[in-house]
Design a protein that fits this description.
Length: 423
């Protein structure tokens, strides 16, 4: 696939990704801001603002007007806020791309942020917070992030923010945050699928050419000098204990970034991964267990998550750590390495099969590293990883003093867990 990248005079980046043999098109508008760019008092503001963008513009004066126009063309549309980016998107039949592009551009550029809607939406956001509080599988990552990054750093805070912040935000807060972060140099517009290239580019230039070109705010850097294992338990009455065990790892563009991906796949991607076989198939300790690597511009981590019976927590931790020790001691076989790499390449290829996936990937890539990483480049980087790379990364990351364990469940005491955290 060939990506066409254009930069407007105000600094806005446009990515066009024509795709043959598809009848869909997707527009994604993404800006490089999220909860990482908030102060403690602002925590939750980026996500709340994302909600408010759908509440009306001058052209489309209500949430109903926006949703009815997109529903009328069968669009799949939404938005999301992450720690380091926020995006608005619509996927449509190719014949309706101009409508989708017009609506998404309008809400991004012209939201009126009506005060009466702010008051109403507070309740919806608070209900969203409560909904996830009832889903410990989804919120154990908040416990883990606070442990890994510290609550004093933005990466250690939640994306949704605390309820007291949600109740306090005013229209002035939203307008100020928008002016500071929603700038042309901090934003990317991507269209992928089947669409008229010349007309689409002309419309984006016309609509976004007037977006402010202020310099984006830099994120607060993160560094961690951890020398002892750390544990955080959120005591809660649950039917199952949820845990994440993780270690600090690498940022985007690190020389071992892709070796880390292969290591994570060997550990916990798929039902033939080491952790799935040992924890679930062999011992029946968990229904679900998986491992993954998460990355930012200046830091990252490798994490393993599982849900287990309360009384099986200790055994699960010991089993997981035994697998980490094996990866340090013994090189993976050629057969296992090949399987893990093929698994990654297969899932990458499937993940970039549709116009919405291609558009989101391209926009996120530009926001995160300043350019698009093509599928061919990703596959090539995976192919070059060998067993020595995997073992070297395992030895670099899996150290007792680097372990972080986050738990949600009815566990009032964590002292008995510390002796287990040894690799």
């Amino acid at each position: 696939m060939q990506y066409q990248i254009h930069t407007l005079e105000n600094g806005l980046r446009i990515v066009l990704a024509p795709m043959k043999d598809t009848m869909t098109a997707t527009v994604v508008v993404m800006t490089g801001t999220g909860s990482r760019y908030e102060t403690e008092r602002e925590n939750g503001l980026a996500h709340f603002l994302e909600h408010m963008f759908f509440k009306g513009t001058k052209k489309r004066p209500s949430a109903r007007a926006i949703s009815e126009e997109l529903d009328a063309i069968g669009s799949i549309y939404n938005a999301f806020t992450a720690k380091d980016r926020t995006a608005y998107f619509a996927k449509v039949s190719s014949r309706y791309l101009r409508v989708a592009l017009d609506v998404i551009s309008d809400i991004f550029l012209n939201s009126t942020l009506p005060g009466r809607e702010i008051a109403k939406e507070r309740g919806a956001v608070i209900q969203e917070i409560d909904m996830y509080e009832d889903m410990p599988m989804r919120t154990v990552d908040n416990v883990f992030d606070a442990l890994m990054f510290g609550k004093e750093h933005p990466l250690g805070r939640t994306i949704l923010g605390p309820k007291e912040n949600i109740r306090s935000f005013s229209r002035r807060d939203f307008a100020s945050y928008f002016k500071k972060h929603y700038t042309a140099q901090n934003s990317v517009v991507c269209v992928a699928g089947s669409f008229p290239i010349v007309k689409t580019l002309a419309k984006i230039r016309r609509d976004f050419g007037r977006l402010s070109n202020g310099n984006p705010q830099a994120a607060l850097p993160f560094s961690k000098a951890q020398v002892e294992p750390a544990i955080a338990i959120k005591e809660k009455k649950t039917d199952q204990t949820h845990m994440i065990l993780g270690v600090p790892a690498y940022p985007y563009l690190h020389k071992d970034e892709f070796a880390l991906e292969v290591l994570a796949a060997i550990l916990g991607s798929g039902m033939s991964s080491r952790l799935f076989l040992e924890v679930r198939e062999k011992r029946g300790l968990a229904y679900s267990i998986h491992a993954w690597a998460d990355k930012y511009r200046d830091t990252g981590y490798l994490a393993i998550q599982a849900g287990v019976a309360h009384e099986k927590l200790d055994k699960t931790i010991s089993t997981v750590l035994a697998e980490l020790r094996k990866l340090k001691r013994v090189k993976v076989s050629n057969a296992e390495l090949r399987k893990a790499k093929q698994h990654i390449k297969g899932t990458m290829t499937l993940a970039l099969e549709t116009s919405d996936a291609v558009a989101t990937h391209a926009a996120a890539s530009v926001v995160s590293i300043g350019r698009v990483r093509s599928l061919a480049e990703l596959l090539k980087n995976i192919d070059r990883i060998d067993a020595d790379d995997v073992q070297r990364v395992a030895r670099d990351l899996f150290k007792s003093g680097s372990l972080n364990l986050a738990v949600i469940g009815p566990h009032p005491n964590n002292q008995h867990l510390y002796p287990l955290l040894r690799v």
